[in-house]
Design a protein that fits this description.
Blueprint (H helix, E strand, L loop, with lengths): L2 H18 L11 H11 L4 H14 L3 H6 L2 H8 L6 H16 L8 H5 L6 H12 L8 H11 L8 H17 L4 H14 L18 H4 L16 E11 L3 E6 L10 E2 L2 E4 L6 H5 L2 H6 L5 E6 L3 E4 L3 E12 L13 E4 L10 H8 L9
Parallel strand pairs: 1-7
Antiparallel strand pairs: 1-4, 2-3, 2-8, 5-7, 6-7
Helix pairs in contact: 1-10, 1-11, 2-3, 2-8, 8-11, 9-11
Bound molecules: iron/sulfur cluster.
Iron/sulfur cluster binds next to helix 9 and helix 12.
Length: 366
């Protein structure tokens, strides 16, 4: 992009930002800990959804030392519903690193910030510019969209070449912008989020339209370009909600699968959508946890859906009333007994939370 066009872009953007920036709780924040928290929470999350989580984390873990010292279950519970749970685990690991290996001092250079677990180039640039005024340009989905449309650049944003092109262009723009680095980064992201939106951008009322290549050539709907389409693998979960009086059994997911460290009911993963009651009764969780006890299937939920980045989860909940007490501790394996009224104390994946919150589905047993 020519230098004059880049100047036009940054000057108009700065003028737009002066009258339009979004009032968000972390704006103007100087504390690198809080800036880091907000940036990790906002990865792959809309601002409106992330805001209450940011406020909750600031309230429950006001300093990096508080976060480092917190039990993992407390952090997972505070994160519950936000998705991409590896972010919460990385947040905890990075807090321990800052608190215990750096004496509580947050790194103040781009390279130092990049050392924190879960911090990639985008997050490091955001923290470095917002907290310390360092000249590193952020490149997120908003920035890709604005730059590809304004510059008329059809290089795929998910290709190695495209990433390099946009990163270089974003950096050039930051260096000529009439704003400090943190404000410039905020301006382009706000502009992408609220004005040059993915669908129905405000082109006819846009301060950049005169020089915007996509607008001038009628290609706004075609940019940015993505190379790969995400294919979602379908998985079918059957949850055994085995009720022993007021208690059910749950366990914490471990291993390198989705929802690590979240809780769930005993699970039967099945190769296809439908499973019969007979198949459920013959399954391993039933054999281990119910065995020969008398048991009645009281309710089967309609299939519930949750879309993850690379997987589509369908879950059916089998509410079973079991006679007699739960298995003895020696037979429980990874499962723990929990009273139904206390289930809200555990962090569950969204699909289970929705199930528990839906009174028309969740069986109210005493
Ligand atoms: S004219 Fe439309 S496409 Fe171009 S920058 Fe403005 S809002 Fe975005």
């Amino acid at each position: 992009m020519k230098q004059e066009k880049l100047h036009f872009f940054t000057e108009r953007l700065a003028a737009w930002f002066a009258g339009n920036h979004r009032p968000l709780p972390w704006k103007g924040e100087q504390d690198p800990y809080r800036i880091w928290l907000s940036e990790i929470i906002l990865q792959q999350t809309r601002v409106e959804q992330g805001m209450p989580y940011f406020e909750r984390f600031c309230r429950e873990f006001p300093t990096v030392a508080d976060l480092a010292a917190a039990p993992e279950d407390a952090i997972m519970k505070a994160w519950e519903g936000l998705g991409y749970y590896s972010r919460a685990r990385n947040l905890h690991a990075a807090a321990k690193y800052v608190a215990y290996e750096r004496g509580g001092v947050f790194p103040a250079t781009y390279e130092g910030i990049r050392q924190l677990k879960g911090v990639g180039p985008y997050t490091a640039a955001a923290i470095a510019s917002f907290a310390y005024g360092l000249p590193y340009a952020v490149v997120d989905g908003n920035v890709y969209r604005v730059l590809s449309r304004f510059g008329g650049i059809a290089e795929p944003i998910d290709s190695a070449g495209g990433k390099k092109t946009f990163a270089q262009l974003a950096q050039r723009a930051l260096e000529v912008a009439p704003l400090p680095p943190g404000s410039y980064n905020q301006a382009i992201m706000d502009f992408g989020a609220t004005h040059c939106k993915p669908k129905a951008p405000f082109c006819t009322d846009c301060p950049l339209s005169r020089e915007c290549s996509a607008f001038q050539k009628g290609k706004v709907g075609l940019l940015p370009v993505k190379e790969k389409k995400i294919k979602r693998k379908k998985r079918f979960f059957h949850y055994l909600v085995a009720n022993y009086g007021a208690e059910v059994l749950i366990h914490k997911r471990t291993g390198r699968d989705i929802w690590q460290n979240l809780y769930e009911f005993p699970l039967l993963e099945w190769p296809e959508a439908a499973a019969s009651e007979e198949q459920i009764r013959r399954s391993a969780p039933w054999a281990t946890l119910i065995g020969d006890r008398g048991a009645v299937v009281r309710q089967v939920s309609p299939p519930q859906q949750q879309a993850l980045t690379h997987q589509q989860i369908q879950a059916v909940f089998w509410e079973v009333e079991v006679e007699g007490p739960p298995p003895a501790a020696s037979e429980l394996g990874p499962f723990i007994r929990a009273e139904r009224k206390n289930l809200s104390k555990f962090a569950f994946p969204k699909i289970i939370d929705c199930y528990l919150g839906d009174n028309s589905l969740y069986l109210k047993l005493v």
